[in-house]
Amino acid sequence: MNLLFLLLLLGTSSVWGQTSYVPPTKVLKERGSQLSFGVDSFTTSSVVDKDGKKVKLSDGENFGRYQGEVNGLFGLTDSFNAGIGVRFRHQTSTFLSGTENINAKATGVQSISGRFLFAFDPVSKTQFTFEGLFRYAPYTNEDIDTPNPDLTKLALGDEGNEYSLGLGVTHSTLANNHYTLRGGWRRPGNDLSTELFWNGEVALQFRYVTPLAGVDGVTSLKNSIYENDPAERPKWNTGATGLYNSINREYIAPYVGLNLGFAQVWRVEFKASQVISGRSTDLGTGFGLTLVRRLDESEEKLVDSQFKTYDLEATVTKISDKKTYVVIDKGLSDDIEKGMKFDFYEFDYVGGNTLVARGVVIKASADKAIVKLTHRFNMARELKEGLVGRASLK
Length: 394
Known about the structure:
Layout: H1 2-10, E1 33-48, E2 54-56, E3 62-75, E4 80-97, E5 100-119, E6 126-136, E7 162-172, E8 177-187, E9 195-204, E10 209-220, E11 250-262, E12 266-275, E13 277-279, E14 281-295, H2 297-305, E15 312-319, E16 325-328, E17 341-347, E18 353-364, E19 369-376, E20 388-391
Antiparallel strand pairs: 1-2, 1-3, 1-14, 3-4, 4-5, 5-6, 6-7, 7-8, 8-9, 9-10, 10-11, 11-12, 11-13, 12-14, 15-16, 15-20, 16-19, 17-18, 17-20, 18-19
C-alpha cells in the first residue's frame, strides 16, 4: 500500500486525471462501465450485547476480518445501471473455550451480488436515485451443537441471502462539493431482523484529490425471532466476535477518506472507519483501499471537448461575485444566441489549453452576452477575466 501511495504522489501532472470522486448517486451514461477492486479489514476491540452493554475481549482474545471484492457496473441506459460482484472473506479469531485458547479461521466466497441504480431527472444541481441490491451467500455454517465439534473452524458469516432497497440524493455545488444522503430497507439474512440502513457523506473535490467524511449506520426494526429466546439461535462457532448471529443489531460508524484520481479514468480510494456504538455487534476499526476504473461516455466527451473544433470565440470580461455568471465580449452581432453552450479555457499561447468551466447563454445583447455556468472542471484553475470562451454553431 505504501509503495502504491508513493508512486501516485510522484506522478507527473500529465498522469493525474479528473475522476478523483464520483458521488454514489451518479449513474453511468449508456455504454459506460466501472470496474473496482477493493480490500478492507476490520479488527474488533470489544463486543456489544443486545442490550448495548460493552464487553471487552479477554487477554489473548481477538477477531479480525479481511475481505476482497470485485465489482462491475454497466450503463444500460442514461438513467439505469446494473452491476455484479463477488466478495471473498478471510477471518481469524483466538478465543477461550474453558481454559484453553483456540485459534480458528474461515476462508471462502462470502457472497455473489447483483445491484441496480436508477436516476431520476436532476433538479438543478440535485440528483435523486433509487437503488437495489441482492447478495447471494453460497455457504452454510457448521453446527457445533454436536459431540466433539471442530472449534478451529469459524462461521464465515450470517447464512441466507441479503436484499435491500433504498433512495439517495446528492447536491453538488459549482465548486464541486458534494453532499449525499442515502437510506433504505434491508433484510440482511436468514433469521435476522430487518433493518434500516443510512449514510451521510460530504466530499470536497479538488483537481487531483478529494477528502471526504461521513457516517454509516443501521437501525433495527426489532423483529428478530430470537429476541425473547436467544438460546434458540443456531449454534455456530463465531469465536470472539458478535458480528454474526445477532439479535436486532444496530451500529453507528463514522469514517474519513481520501480519493486520488489519475490517468483520466482511474482513482484510488482510501477509507478509515470506527464503529463507536451499537447493539448486538462489535466495536472496532476498519480500513479500506479500492482501485476504480470508470469509463463513462460523458467523461470521454469531456476529454474530447478539449480538442474539438469550435466556430466562435469570445473573452470573459466580467464575473459575478458568486462566480456563477460571466459576461463575454460577443453578442447578437456575432451570432451569439440565448441557449448557446460555451466552454471556457485558460489559454496561454504556448501550448496550455485547459478546460475550466462550461455554461449556457441566458441573455444576449448586440455586443455582449451573459453566460450561466453549469459545470466546473478544473478547480486548480481560477475562474477569472480573460478566459477564452468557445462555442459551436452546430
